[in-house]
Amino acid sequence: MKLKYIYIAITATVLFTSCKKLIDQPYDNRLELKAAADYEGLVIQAYPERQDMFTDILTDDYHHYAGTMQASMGPRYLPIFMYKDDYQEGTAASPQPAYAHYYSKIYLVNNVIDEVMKGTGDETYKKAIRGEALMIRAYCYFSLVNLFGMHYNPATSATDLGVPLLTEVATANRPTFPRSTVKEIYDQIDKDITEGLSLMKAGSAFLRTNPYRFSLISANAFIARVNLYKGNWEETVKYANQVVQEKGIVVRDLDKDITILTTTSIANFALQYMDPSTHPNILLASQTNVFLVTPVGFRLGGFYPALIYTYGTSMFTNTDNRRRLISTGGTVIDSVSVYVKYAPQPNQPGVGVGRYDCFTMEEVLLNRAEANLKKANPDIAAAMRDVEEIRKKRFTSYAPLSTTGLTVDQALTLVLRERRLELLGQGLRWYDVKRLGIQVEHRLIRYAASTGTILVPNDKRTALQIPLTARIGNPALENQLNPR
User: Fold this and answer.
1) What is the Cα–Cα distance from 118 to 116, expressed in whole angstroms?
2) What is the mean pLDDT of the chain?
3) Which residues, 6+ apart, have CB-to-CB distance to 371 below 8 Å?
4) Quick one: 25 exposed, middle or buried, by C-beta within 10 A (0-12, 13-18, 19+)?
5) Using CA atoms, how far apart are residues 418 and 453, in angstroms rounded to an integer?
6) pLDDT at 15 over 60
7) Is there a cis peptide before residue 346, judged by omega within 30 degrees of 0?
8) Is 221 inside any structural domain?
9) Where does the pLDDT of residue 10 fall: very low under 50, low under 70, confident under 90, or very high at 90 and above?
10) What is the pTM of this model?
């Protein structure tokens, strides 16, 4: 009898211990966050891709050539090109995956922001991690509100619809989140970048130096862009100055890049163009998604740069090396081209990792030049110096622009023209169309004006519609659709 009771006691102890071990384990094998390094790992996962690159086909930088579009691409991209809300969802290079992607990254950083300071590890290290997470969240919301809301207008931002604002990790089952206003989203962005920058400075010794992570330089470049979009010209100049002060004016030497193109191949050139070891980019995104190839890829989508061949003309002069960043497509008669700045290009969907720029020195200089012309006391000389810092690395026979008798309006026209030429294909033109009130005409057939649509300045369609799949998961949005 004694042996029996001992056996039962041992068995019960083993079972109890085993059960305790079992229930102590995360039920779904998720990462258990304890140390600061764990949270840093989550921050790395939270960096977003450039899911907004599809917006190039919404702009005046691209036109449609029906004869070169693959049949399967028509239903995917023509509705987007024509500013219709009933586009095909579940397709790469469209608003729906962009919406889902940025919110998935916000979920990750919200975990870090909420909990990292409670984790184990050096307090300064944890501040650096939290600051980086705040900067990522601000970047995601900045992308979302500029895709799905109207451009920031201080007169209407308090009533213009933005996007749902989630600043904590949801704990309820299937919670619903209504849309916040554009002002509320920008207020949160301002709060996040202010606190984030302060924490990053406090933890600067722990900030990573690789070009795929936020640094103080890239944080300042981001803040300069936010202020440009809000019309805070003095603040734009201030933060752009910080970038230049910390990094120096280092722009791409296009003449050297062209040598790679002419001595090797267009494919190798595309791989090298955003190589972080040889080019001075401020922040890069590394991604394997080939959505950039569609819809603006080589003989796939049928969308081609309008600046190079717009009904037989080109905005680039013959000595401007930027016009050589093309890969010809179609036939000699077609006269179509693909602007190549990223790999995988051209028409290489099997190529692995592509590198996409989030912030470059060229954009910082152009932001500062524009702000210097729009601030209360315009500085034409400073604006033109920034433009020439770029132009002198772009022409085979460089000659500075004449500034004799130049008015502020004339200088601004030159700056915005250079901005368009320099940033072509980098996913920023759509935001310029919105914030500058640029009219865009899209034609289904290039030479038939009656087969298209015109986007007027401040058009309601510049706020892309909230995707259907997002509304299904969050029915509160059904009564908050963008007006048309």
Assistant:
1) 5
2) 86
3) 227, 228, 233, 234, 236, 237, 240
4) exposed
5) 27
6) no
7) yes
8) no
9) very low
10) 0.90
* Four-residue CA torsion sign, 230, 236, 242, 244: positive
Q: How many residues comprise the chain?
A: 484
Per-residue model confidence (pLDDT) at position 335? 55
CB 60 within 8 A of CB 440: yes
Domain total in the chain: 1
Q: What are 286's strand-pairing partners?
A: 355
Give domain status of residue 243, yes or no: no
Q: Which residues contact 110 (CB under 8 A, 6 or more apart)?
A: 137, 166, 167, 168, 169
The answer to the question of residue 157 being in a domain is yes
Output the six-digit token pair for 352.
Answer: 């692995």
pLDDT of 381 higher than 60: yes
CATH code for the domain of 448: 1.25.40.390
| Tens digits of residue pLDDT in 111-145 | 999 999 999 999 999 999 999 999 999 999 999 99
The predicted-structure confidence for 38-47, as pLDDT tens digits, reads as follows 999 999 999 9
| CB contact at 8 A, 286 and 218 | no
C-alpha 119/C-alpha 121 separation (Å) is 7
pLDDT reported for residue 317 = 86
CA distances from 423 to 169, 401, 416, 429 (A): 36, 19, 10, 8
The pair of three-digit structure tokens given for residue 106, joined into one six-digit string: 């916000």
